[in-house]
């Protein structure tokens, strides 16, 4: 079938579902609770309309953008995702190469399955390190120092995980990090040899950023001790760009701006945390109003197409990030699948811009 079978994000998801073990697919695809929040995200995006305009010369269109005064070839990047190598061996590096080619940020998760040092090199510097505050914070700030030493210029503090959300699909399969193998998992893997055999050859994915002295990471460890004082300490320690991710409240956004962060990422963690959280796209305009027109505002959660990105830009975002659909493309057809989906997303966006009668992203924002 090949990568040419991927014509949309849903195609990538459908193929990934066929090829991944059930445990792995449900870890990537799942959301909190009964997954009503994920449905709310999608419904809100689907309900938003973009108004076509006609008889304008749109023969030359640009998807070029910028972030922190650096050019980007697309207005969308790669959200930080944990354990991407579960989708296929080497997935982290595939994502890094896309980031390098298109000069967009690769979000490197605290729980990435490839070391942060290797990823920033492969991404040719186009990498941001995503940070979870955990436990008493001692290990967290060691990771900050390590990111600085590796050459990271942008740090993304994720604040919407004081406790890891309950995701029943994960729990039913006994999903844990690091992997715990039992009879159910062995059977699951045996029934999906296209995934299992390459993984066996490469070795099971591990959380690569914790191969360091004095830090044993526990994914389920409480992150509830993080406070505004924690943020102030991080702001003092980190001299580069500081992004705070997981914001859904305008008052919080105003306070973050006053605290000196450089950007805010409006996000519900892909609906993987609080099932009853609002759809992020619905609070994006309110947060834009709260922080003003010139403050950097990013968006993720629920995006499935290039047209979705235009909706985020039209509602106040400067830049957007795709997540799990990129893993689905890799699971479906490896690096070729990822490249195909990236091209699909770009083409979807460019064609939609033509329909809207705009040739640049600035026009999308101005016409919102």
UniProtKB/TrEMBL annotation:
Cofactor or coenzyme needed: FMN
Q: Which domain of life is it from?
A: Bacteria
Query: For the FMN hydroxy acid dehydrogenase domain, which residue ranges apply?
Result: 1-368
Signal peptide from the UniProt entry: none
Q: Which InterPro entries match?
A: Aldolase_TIM, Alpha-hydoxy_acid_DH_FMN, FMN-dep_DH, FMN_HAD
Q: What family does the database annotate?
A: Belongs to the FMN-dependent alpha-hydroxy acid dehydrogenase family.
Q: What is this protein called?
A: Alpha-hydroxy-acid oxidizing protein
